[in-house]
């Protein structure tokens, strides 16, 4: 009796393990180059940058709404 192939049922060309993404590769390099505290500080700083950008976008949108509300109606 012969053993069944290991990848039976898997389509040709697929892998049993996922190919690492660019993000995974960058995090691996980061873990080699930075200590744990530096990684945490960098990630916290980046999270703050993203949050600041979101708040700035919200401010612009709110200002546009206020400007539109205070503008006199157009007459044709």
Describe the SSE topology.
Elements: H1 22-33, H2 36-70
Region (Disordered): 52-76
Biased composition (Basic and acidic residues): 52-61
List keywords for this structure.
single chain; 76 residues; mainly alpha; 2 helices; 0% strand
Could you please describe the fold and organization of this structure?
This protein is mainly alpha-helical. It has a domain at 46-70. It has helices at residues 22-33, 36-70. The mean pLDDT is 83.
- The helix content, as a percent range, equals 55-70%
What is the makeup of the main sheet? none
**Which structural category do the helix and sheet elements fall into?**
mainly alpha
What amount of the residues lies in strands?
under 5%
Task: Specify the number of helices.
Answer: 2
Succession of helices and strands: HH
Low-confidence stretches: none
Distance between the termini: 89 Å
Radius of gyration: 26 Å
Mean pLDDT: 83
Number of distinct beta strands: 0
Name the overall outline.
elongated
Region (Disordered): 52-76
Biased composition (Basic and acidic residues): 52-61
């Amino acid at each position: 009796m012969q053993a069944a192939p290991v990848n039976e049922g898997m389509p040709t060309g697929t892998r049993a393990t996922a190919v690492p993404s660019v993000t995974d590769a960058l995090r691996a390099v980061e873990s080699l180059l930075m200590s744990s505290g530096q990684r945490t500080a960098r990630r916290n700083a980046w999270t703050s940058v993203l949050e600041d950008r979101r708040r700035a976008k919200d401010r612009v949108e709110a200002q546009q709404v206020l400007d539109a509300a205070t503008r006199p109606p157009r007459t044709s």
